[in-house]
Amino acid sequence: MSKELWEQLWTAWKSSAVPPVQVRKFAAGDAWNIPWVQLEGVRNMPTPAATSFATAEHLVCRLAGKDPELIAAYKIHAYLVHSDRRGVLQDALAHAMRKHGEQLDGWWKPTVRYVLPAGSYTYTIPKLPLDIPDGAWPLMIEQAARAWSDIAKVWTVVHIAAFLAYDSPEYLAVSRISIAQMEKNEREHYLSLKNKYEGEQR
Description:
Blueprint lengths: L1 H14 L6 E4 L10 E3 L14 H10 L5 H15 L7 H10 L37 H18 E5 L9 H33 L1
Parallel strand pairs: 1-3
Antiparallel strand pairs: 2-3
Helix pairs in contact: 1-4, 3-4, 3-5
C-alpha cells in the first residue's frame, strides 16, 4: 500500500514542477552563520527561525546531487513537519526514503516544528486542517508544492562555513573571505571615525 501511495504522491509532485531552491557558495558580504539569504530584488523578509538551519544544511550537504525522488519525499516530509502533521503519509514517505538509503526519522529533532523559512507579505506557508486524513493527499501535495515553490522564489541557501569540515580547503577559503571582509569593515569604520574627528577639529 505504501509503495502504491508513494507512486501517486511522486506523480503528483512531478506534475507540480516545483523549482529547486538555489544553492551558492559563500561570498564576501555573507553572514558567517546565516544560510538563508533573500534573492536579489526581494526585501524585508523576516530572518528564518533557527530551526530552519538544519533544513538549509540538508539541502546543501545531505541532499546535494541526490535523486529527485528522494528530494521530493524530503520536501513533502518537511512541509508536513512544519504543518505539525508528522504522522501523515508516514509509511509512503518512509518507503520512498528507504529506496534511496535514507530514513524518515532523524532529519530534525522530534520537538522541532518550524523547519521551513518563514514568509511575510510575499508568501505564507499554507496550513492543513488538524484532522486531515491520508486520503486527502492531493491537497497535501498541492500545499507542499506551493510552499516550496514560494520558498524557491524568495530564498537561496548559502554554503556557509558551518556546513564545511574544519580541515577542508573549502573551509579555509571561506575563512579567508570572512577575515578579509571583517578587515575591510573595520578599515571603513576607522576611516569614518577619523573623518568625523578631523571634521570636528576644523
